[in-house]
Amino acid sequence: MLRKLLILSLCAAAADLAAQPLCQDTFRRTPTYRCQDPFYLPVCGCNGITYRNQCAAYWQGGVNTWSGGVCTGFDVDIFPNPFAGNEPVIINISFPDNVSGSLTLRIIDAWGGSVWQRYFSNVYRERITLDPGFLKQGLYVLVVADGQGNYRSYKLVRA
Q1: What are phi and psi of 90, to 5 degrees?
Q2: Same fold yes or no, 22-72 and 73-159
Q3: What is the mean pLDDT of the chain?
């Protein structure tokens, strides 16, 4: 009798797991997939990763469910990158819903010199249009630091 009860409860647990949707579909996940949607509307995937938009979450991350906005910390999106000519470079910064913070952005050249810096206080979402006319052809690093000592770095390439 005890054995039947154990088997029955295991079957019920398996049926409950089967009813829950999986967070990610690893067969659909294609990190190099090129979304045709150029808009930056960040979403937080069920896996706790922030994606650029729903297309990126679905195809690049293979995520099945998400919610709007940034998961944690802050998110930075740079478009286009690499860039050429004098087309503007758009830098989007987002914090999670109902959160704001201060950020310092700095562009550093290949020799470690700071070529551009800007400070933002009390931002929730910020869209920065950068005129790249002052940047020569080459490799740069964009460093974004918040007021709590967290930072992220991004490669910028001027072709």
Answers
A1: -100, 125
A2: no
A3: 88
Q: Mind listing the pLDDT tens digit for each residue in 10-47? A: 555 554 444 456 999 999 999 999 998 878 999 999 99
- Cα–Cα distance between 48 and 61 in angstroms, integer? 11
Distances from the Cα of 85 to the Cαs of 16, 135, 158, in angstroms? 56, 10, 8
Pick the CATH number of 73-159 from 3.30.950.10, 2.60.40.1930, 3.40.930.10, 3.10.50.40: 2.60.40.1930
Rounded alpha-carbon distances, angstroms, from residue 103 to 27, 38, 129 = 38, 24, 16
**Structure confidence at residue 142 as a pLDDT band (50, 70, 90):** very high
Name the class of domain 22-72: alpha beta
Q: What is this structure's pTM?
A: 0.77
Confidence of residue 92 (pLDDT cuts 50, 70, 90): very high
State the CB neighbour count (10 A cutoff) for residue 88. Answer: 14
Domain boundary assignment for the chain: 22-72, 73-159
